[in-house]
Amino acid sequence: MNSNIFGEFITHNESETSLLAKELAKTLVAGDVVCLFGDLGVGKTVFTKGICRELGTDEYINSPTFTIVNEYEAKDLDIYHFDMYRIEDPSELIEIGFSEYLSKNGICIIEWPENIYSELPKCRTDVKIERLSFDEEQNRKVTIVRNEA
Description:
- The chain has 4 helices and 7 strands.
- With 149 residues, the chain is of the alpha/beta class.
- The protein has a single domain (3-147), classed as Rossmann fold (3-Layer(aba) Sandwich).
- Strands 1-7-6-2-5-4-3 form a 7-stranded mixed β-sheet.
- Strand 3 (69-73) and strand 4 form a beta hairpin.
- The longest helix has 12 residues, at 14-25.
- The relative contact order is 0.24.
- The model has no long low-confidence stretch (mean pLDDT 91).
């Protein structure tokens, strides 16, 4: 695993954020879980698109706010993209089969994981995206941490 991808990074635009996500994607294997933390509109879906493109899907990527999960086929595995923004109680995860997705041979990307924190696997990659300014600049601080069980 490329340990150089873990740490703090500053990106200046969507393209740089996407490139960072592509670098992270190179370290991912089937069964990995990536949790994306950050405020609304900070770039979580941009980051997801970067991962998906690097893993070989050319499908349209959007945030599954209303469907809760979108599934994408990549070259060698499936990608399960979750948006937990609307989840109010972890028991709602049973309805969407969340635990089954975690046990599949794919990669799970979870936006708004703080809403289901108690249900997250201990072994995962956490990505925190923070807006550094609220003017026209798109500077972001992206912190990537690998949590081992």
